[in-house]
Amino acid sequence: MPRNEPTEVTEEWDGGRSARRRKAVRYGVPVAVAGVTAATIGLVPAFAGSGSPDLPKISAQDLIAKIAKSDVQQLSGTVQVTTDLGLPALPGGAGAGALGGGQGGGGAGASASPQSKLTELASGTHTLRVAADGPDKQRVSIVGKSADYTLVHNGADVWAYDSGSNSAVHHTAPKDARHGAHRGAPEGLPDGGLRNATPQELAKEVLKAAGDTTSVTVGDTARVAGRDAYQLVIKPKQAASTVGSIRVAVDAANGVPLKFTLTPKSGGPAAVDVGYTRVDFARPAADTFAFTPPKGAKVVNGDRAAHGKGESGKGLGGFGGFGGFKDGQGPKGAGGFEVLGKGWTSIAALKAPGGPGGKDQLAKGDAGKFLDSLGSKVSGAFGSGHVFSTRLVNALITDDGRVYVGAVDQQALIAAADAAKK
Predict the structure, then answer these.
(1) I want to staple 153 with a disulfide (CB 3.0 to 4.6 A). Which of 34, 49, 188, 308 is the partner?
(2) The pairing of beta strand 210-218 with beta strand 41-43
(3) Distances, alpha carbon 270 to alpha carbons 123, 124, 247, 285, in Å
């Protein structure tokens, strides 16, 4: 097979005016990081390279259209999620799970709440078993060493069950979720974070809009979960972004994203790597989606608990709970935030909990020393503060109680804080 060379695209991307392209843009992808969607995709003509297996050449436009046209309704398989953001260890061995909150209130029921499991996916390697049969039936299980956590959506019923505590939370699926479009993930689940921990949903988040802050090419072909795949290679054009590249492996036969890999600009292992290790596109057995709480299980009515707290049945959106905010606003009651800039260098600006007083308390004594050990002191026209860094997301907390966070370098955060003071 001759080597595939980049070829000029004679048709311009029309922003979604044709039916096929409208669908491609709608399902198309930049990644939601710390509440800021890396917004736009600029298509660069390129074709699959000389990797194995040999596949017909395809342009980036056509591969995105192939993803958009994919209408896989049934699948089952195993997904491996590996996250390495370089988060610091907390004193006393407290893990990410200590940060999770539960819709079901305190006690055993809270451990079965989807929100209590989101932060567990923020570090380490996890195995998920997934199954779907159309928009009304989905199942996701996090496989643990000693216990499993399972979400089941079957029609109007959504169950979350934690085998370790033998506790369950029941929700009624939103009506729009029961009849919406299905893309191979549990749309009816009350919390979007676990639903988005699949290659399909991550890819959809990254290709949502077309624009000029991103280049997209087609890289070498690959084999993922025994399937032939093309690879979209997505790179920010904005120098201040901490994202090096994103690779999305796409099933050559049916257009389903099989693997999502985000590598930081600093290099090293992937910060986020989510991919199928096994996948089957046959219809799962009907009893896959049946669930009855085991004898003696603690069962919490999630609808009643959420109503009592003034919450909706829907939880946090976006991978890791970072998405789900519209028009640059945060959740109600949290003060909200504004988005500064655009594309991959967007920065979320918000007030720190407790304001300047809370920050002053942290700066005193041992708490202040601990703060200094985690972050680096910086100053500028905005005043002074601390920058806290991971391999992907950086945050600036100023001494006057403002927070600037995004997948950008330290200088971009300082510049944003300086500009806000003018």
Answers:
(1) 188
(2) parallel
(3) 12, 12, 10, 35
Question: Helical H runs in 199-312?
Answer: 199-206, 302-308
Q: How do strand 298-301 and strand 167-172 relate by DSSP bridges?
A: parallel
Distance, in Å, from the CA atom of 185 to the CA atom of 317, rounded to the nearest integer, reads 13
Beta-strand (E) ranges in 198-327? 210-218, 222-224, 227-236, 243-251, 257-264, 272-280, 298-301
Instruction: Walk along the chain (422 residues) and give the pLDDT tens digit of each residue.
Output: 433 433 333 233 343 434 443 333 333 322 333 233 233 333 444 444 444 789 999 999 899 999 989 999 999 999 999 999 887 654 444 333 333 333 334 444 556 666 666 677 788 999 999 999 999 999 999 998 888 999 999 999 999 999 999 999 999 987 765 444 344 444 444 444 444 567 877 777 777 644 688 999 999 999 999 999 999 999 999 999 999 999 999 999 999 999 999 999 999 999 999 999 999 999 999 999 999 999 999 999 888 766 655 444 343 233 233 333 334 444 433 456 799 998 899 999 998 765 554 455 555 555 556 556 667 899 999 999 999 999 999 999 999 999 999 999 999 999 999 999 87
27 and 217 Cβ atoms separated by less than 8 Å: no
For residues 223 and 231, is the Cβ–Cβ distance under 8 A? no
Which CATH number applies to 19-321? 2.50.20.10
Domain positions in the chain are 19-321, 352-421
What single DSSP character describes residue 362?
Answer: H
Distances (CA, A) of 162 to 102, 151, 190, 243: 12, 9, 16, 34
CA angle 219, 223, 227 (to 5 degrees): 120
* Residue whose C-alpha is closest to residue 119's, from 29, 221, 194, 17: 194
First to last CA, the chain: 59
Tell me how far apart the alpha carbons of residues 237 and 12 are, in angstroms, rounded to a whole number: 19
* pTM attached to this predicted model: 0.74
Residues facing residue 230 across a β-bridge: 250
